[in-house]
Design a protein that fits this description.
Blueprint lengths: L5 E5 L3 H10 L8 E5 L2 H10 L3 E7 L1 E2 L2 E2 H9 L9 E4 L15 E5 L5 H26 L1
Parallel strand pairs: 1-2, 1-3, 3-6, 6-7
Antiparallel strand pairs: 4-5
Length: about 140
């Protein structure tokens, strides 16, 4: 069986999802970016896909708060150690993020293509580390 570490992107804005995918298209370790548009779809994907190395989630989604997904992951032993990268403009509106042990970082969502390139550069070490951990754990 082949192992492909995956990054799960939870983003309900198609343009933002496209830009993240475009700027993270060269993931290391053979990583793959999967995009879903909401919490329920993300939960289903996390349950059915064993090789999710990292979750990138927008806090403001059409079907609820990304914090709900993060809390849900913490309640499941198989998912609680998956690092989460949160997109949000303001941490002060989400103080609960400080208590979530699986949140690797909080990053402001960019508003331009050049901003997404900068985001990709900031995310690469985090994503690389998550992918490397998942590759090592699979061996």
């Amino acid at each position: 069986m082949s192992f492909t570490p995956r990054i799960l992107l939870v983003e309900d804005d198609p343009q933002d999802a496209f830009l993240v995918q475009r700027h993270l298209s060269d993931l290391p370790y053979g990583g793959e970016l999967l995009a879903v548009s909401g919490i329920h779809e993300a939960q289903a994907r996390l349950v059915e896909t064993a090789d999710i190395a990292c979750v990138m989630v927008d806090l403001k989604l059409a079907d609820g708060s990304g914090a709900t997904l993060i809390e849900w992951m913490l309640d499941h032993d198989a998912l609680k150690d998956i690092p989460v990268i949160v997109f949000s403009g303001d941490r002060s509106q989400h103080p609960e993020l400080d208590t979530f042990s699986n949140v690797a970082c909080l990053i402001q969502k960019p508003s331009s293509a050049s901003g997404y390139e900068a985001l990709a550069q900031a995310l690469r070490p985090i994503v690389s580390s998550a992918l490397a951990r998942s590759v090592y754990a699979a061996q």
